[in-house]
Amino acid sequence: MAKTSEFSGFHQLSPSERLAKVADACGLSEDETALLQKEGSLPLSLADKMVENVIGFAPIPLGIATNFQINGKDYLIPMAIEEPSVIAAASNAAKITRQCGGFTASVSEPIMRGQVQLVGIIDAKEACKKLLAKKKEIKKAAAAATIGMKEYGGGFRKFSCRVMKSGRGDMVLAEFFIDVRDAMGANTINTALESIAPMLAEITGGKPRLRILSNLAKERTAKASAVWKKEILGTETIDAILDGYEFAANDIFRCATHNKGIMNGVDALVVATSNDWRAVEAGAHSFAAYKKGYKPLTRYRKNENGDLIGEIEFPVAVGTVGGATRTNPIAKIALKIAGVSSAGELGMLMAALGLAQNFAALRALSTEGIQKGHMKLHARNIAINAGATGEEADRVAQKLIEENNISVSRAKELLGK
After folding, report:
1. DSSP state string for 41-105
2. Cα gap 247→8, rounded to integer Å
């Protein structure tokens, strides 16, 4: 344990100097410090410029989900994730789906919402009227503040305001809708809002507080759908999946796990491309709760032929330009593997991947159960945890699977032999 966390001037040190201080305070061994500093495709000097107080790396496996066909085009989907069975489940679901015609996906315009909070206003309704009366001037200022997006076909699109009642009195929310094209858009929007806020304060007589984008990007969503033929799935499996879906649609405890399973796949693609997975997570779960309580991001039903129809929609605030997406060399390679030419196309991959992940989970959970396949894939991790290395880990994992006893204690017994 660290003797103290008060490190004066820590940010001014080099990564190796920082690590030396942490190692001394926390008792890290030479082997442990060497592992932390082990460079891969991301140099330590570059990592040090990406985030603060860098001391090393925390690698995540990068795998490929296969078999995806979306809007008639084949894709290999890069996924950065540590959990076993997620990539396998997505690939298997995609294989079944392509036998039925593949996924269909679409994406809306990349419109993000920015909000300026105005407080200390005596008459909030009157302040809103004043803002709307100056709408022309406000739009002009917003267009100027987002001029950089205009050359790419984006820029300011709409302005609105509303009164919000709170425990600290009425507040005015001035909202700007900006087309950010292939960027995630946070920096563009936040910078624009900070430049416009003084003008809004002068018009209303209020004081600007928060000037920030919203991660509930309900104007910027991706959709995907698929039709699974009853001849391929079977009527019993379709009915089982529908029963499982209704469980999530009517019970919030199940729904939380239902949506988490969707994000298993989505987050892995977001991380692989160095996009903001926290923003995507926040957007997805708030979108799930936006209308009538917390609901599944997916929907399932039968068509007139008895086939299963699955659909998904959620916000996709991701970019293919700017930020770590273009700084991290692995992210650039991941985008090349994915073969996407825009943020919108990346969003469609996310939607199809999320639907595939959910379909795979519902199919497994409602039929043979999820643990059988998951624990088989987890066996290698168990073997490594017990101390196995190299080919030895594969042999121990295979024996654990054959015995149907996937446990660390049994793995250690096998290693002892």
Report:
1. SS-HHHHHHHSSS--------EEEEEEEEETTEEEEEEEE--STTHHHHHHHHHHHHHHTT-BEE
2. 53
Which domains occur in the chain, in start order?
1-59 (no CATH), 62-107+222-369 (3.90.770.10), 111-213 (3.30.70.420), 373-416 (1.10.8)
Tokens of 391: 């080919």
Active site residues per annotation: 83, 260, 276, 374
Q: How confident is the model at residue 369 (pLDDT cuts 50, 70, 90)?
A: low
What amino acid is encoded at 377 in this protein?
L
What is the DSSP annotation of 215-270?
S--TTSEEEEEEEE-HHHH-HHHHHHHHHHHHHHHH-HHHHHHHHHHHHHHHHHHH
pTM to 2 decimals? 0.89
pLDDT tens per residue across span 261-318: 999 999 999 999 999 999 999 999 999 999 889 999 999 999 999 999 999 999 999 9
Predicted pLDDT of residue 1: 46
Residue position matching structure tokens 């991380």: 271
Written as one string, the DSSP assignment of 190-208 is HHHHHHHHHHHHHHH--EE
Residue 107 token pair? 């994406």
